[in-house]
Amino acid sequence: RLVYILSKNPGKIKEINTILSPYSISIRSLYQDYSPMEVVENGSSYAENALLKARCGFEISRNLCIGEDSGLEIDALDGAPGLFSARFGGETLNPKEKNKQILELLKEVPQEKRSACFVCIVALVGENSEKIFEGRCPGFISPESRGSSGFGYDPIFILPSYQKTFAELGENIKNRFSHRAIAFRQLAEYLLSEM
Ligand code: ITT
């Protein structure tokens, strides 16, 4: 069954398809079949933003559509960048510069106080139905940027059970434990139970 996702982040879409492959579900970027539209992500929660994206995709395609909103919550920064993870430091900063800025903000913070959590909320919108799924992955912010796999904040996020960053661990391990894997496995179970 065709499931769209309204997302401009190719790293996300690739990861989601890898996570869903054991379930024989694949998602397709809405932008492949429809002309891009701007969704203003001005919700006050991840769920609101995920719903804004999924509803917009459903309205345009009249087909089942996913919206995903995710972020990195750093305790020593009172939960920042959190909901503003994509926009942290302004639209002009690239991921490398964002990571550098976070490491700079945390430079006096000792390892035991560098706890953080990746959050992923998925909204699924279809005819007469809206569902939300959530995944969280706790960890720590590394002292420096390490590894080259993945995207975004992966080079500075340490998975405690491996003591390595997601970017060092690579996609296989990330996709076993990540916030996105937890949320999308629930979505897959739901979709399969509905089919
Ligand atoms: P769409 O809204 O178009 O889907 P986006 O990148 O703007 O793409 P979000 O609004 O959900 O997505 O922003 C989430 C940001 O949080 C994302 O840009 C990354 O910087 C970061 N992020 C989320 N999940 C991540 C992960 O698994 N690894 C690294 N960074 C992640």
TrEMBL record:
Manner of cofactor binding, per the entry note: Binds 1 Mg(2+) ion per subunit.
Enzyme class, first EC level, given as a word: hydrolase
Domain of life, per lineage: Bacteria
GO annotation, biological process: nucleotide metabolic process; purine nucleoside triphosphate catabolic process
Binding site for Mg(2+): D69
Gene Ontology CC: cytosol
Cofactor(s) listed: Mg(2+)
EC number of this enzyme: 3.6.1.66
Record: active site: D69
Subunit structure: Homodimer.
Matches recorded under HAMAP family: Non_canon_purine_NTPase
Family: Belongs to the HAM1 NTPase family.
Known function: Pyrophosphatase that catalyzes the hydrolysis of nucleoside triphosphates to their monophosphate derivatives, with a high preference for the non-canonical purine nucleotides XTP (xanthosine triphosphate), dITP (deoxyinosine triphosphate) and ITP. Seems to function as a house-cleaning enzyme that removes non-canonical purine nucleotides from the nucleotide pool, thus preventing their incorporation into DNA/RNA and avoiding chromosomal lesions.
Name assigned to this protein: dITP/XTP pyrophosphatase
UniProt organism field: Atribacter laminatus
